[in-house]
Amino acid sequence: MKKRLKITMNAPVVLLLVAFSCIATFLSYATNGQMGRFLFMTYHSSLLSPLTWLRAFTHIFGHAGWSHLIGNMSYILLLGPMLEEKYSSKTLAQVIAITAFGTSLVNYILFPNVGLCGASGVVFAFILLSSFTSFREGEIPITFLLVSVLFIGQQVWEGLTVQDNISNMAHIVGGIIGGAIGYELNKKSRRR
Asked: What percent of the chain has pLDDT over 90?
């Protein structure tokens, strides 16, 4: 007797991130960018406005277009389920929230005239976090070093030499957050 294949909900946080991002990008597209600027983009606005604080987290759902969305969601769907299985849904949701707020805060302080949207910071956090999946205490995985040099080095180089609408800062901050959290999470799990 053959077993029937069934579809499983293997990574609820990742799937919610992808679903919210698709909805946000569609809403932005349908409103000619107005909804994107209103809810799904962080920029220098009054700290007294509740929307400023909401957008500090929701900007990761908005994307500049469909290709921006598909590029980010491809990485998130590739890396996210593995990370969610290893660290838990709650922990991955915290990584996403910390990365969203961290990239928003740095953008607010250092780039007051620049709007920021998209999950690129989360993608880079996932990339560096995933390089710690086989971490042992007292060691630094060579994969982490290579990923750090390649991805973060590329972002620094492009930030200095290429003029485009890509936020290299969000990539760098996301990578630093992912690397730091990955190191701490794995250090704690090895002590148990």
From this structure: 55
